[in-house]
Amino acid sequence: MASDALLFYTFAVVTVIGAMLVVSQKNPVYSVLSLILSFFGLAGLYVLLEAPFVAVVQIIIYAGAIMVLFLFVVMLLNVPREDAAEWDRSHPLYRPTAVRLGGTLAVLLALELGWALSRTSGLAAGVGENRPAVSSVAELGKVLFTDYMFAFEVTSILIIASMVGAVVLARKRED
Amino acid sequence: MPLGHYLVLSGLLFAIGTAGVFLRKNLITMLLSVEIMLNAVNLSFVAFGRQWGTVDGQIITFFVMTVAAAEAAVGLALVIGLFRHRESLNPEAFTTLKW
After folding, report:
1. Which fold is adopted by the domain A2-127?
2. Inter-CA distances, A52 with A28, A45, A135, B60, B61, Å
3. Residue A98 touches chain B, beta carbons under 8 Å
4. Chain B positions in Cβ-Cβ contact with residue A54 (cut-off 8 Å)
5. Maximum distance among all alpha carbons in chain A?
6. B61 and A CB contact within 8 Å
7. N or C: which end of chain A has fewer CB within 10 A?
8. How far apart are CA A43 and CA B5, in angstroms?
9. What pTM, to 2 d.p., does this model score?
10. Averaged pLDDT for residues A73-82
11. What interface predicted TM-score (ipTM) does this complex get?
12. Which tens digit of pLDDT belongs to each residue from A138-162?
């Protein structure tokens, strides 16, 4: 049990530090790389929650595919020089109005979530300690292709739509 | 580990993502912050699924990941299109609706 807590805190710290680096880095390339770090921490948490397939998908799809897409775009646009452009000379986190408004909203959100959690009962018991974990991929697939069949099919339409949309939006205009 | 710990972590990540969306002035970093928020929600889905011993939390997580992939593709296509017009990623450069 003790090693479980140690692993949880390690992964949690990695995840939170990665997420904070994403927000505080000036160079978008470093932001993307920190987010990948954060995703590895999250994958560890999924393993602790006995959802190994989600952990693997998190690494392969998120860290592998989506983040590489981001990295491609960042490097394609060559944005590091952009931060020093005319729009934005100061460090993005040190502008007073933005810090006041955005920071207040984020702190308010965190406080509110903490307040809601402090008034919820039954959170102190171990997560799912008297229920068996469902972690087999076979079980997952069975539910996905029976109960969630409609959502699954609609997802394919979503992907077609976003693919066509991405091609149309990023195309060079000839007019 | 208690469920509460996972929920606190999820809330913390969500707040960091919100702060990123509001504080940063770079479209790419804002999209990345949205990804952080989606992942915070994913974490709480999986934690609740484990709590109740059902598989639904993990299934919803897959759908959220699909939506995140679609969002990243369309969002980045928009960013490329905008960058081509203004040579900038600052959202304040895109305040006019037509040019």
Report:
1. Four Helix Bundle (Hemerythrin (Met), subunit A) (1.20.120)
2. 30, 10, 7, 15, 13
3. yes
4. 42, 46, 58, 61-62
5. 65
6. yes
7. C
8. 16
9. 0.86
10. 74
11. 0.90
12. 888 999 999 999 999 999 999 999 9
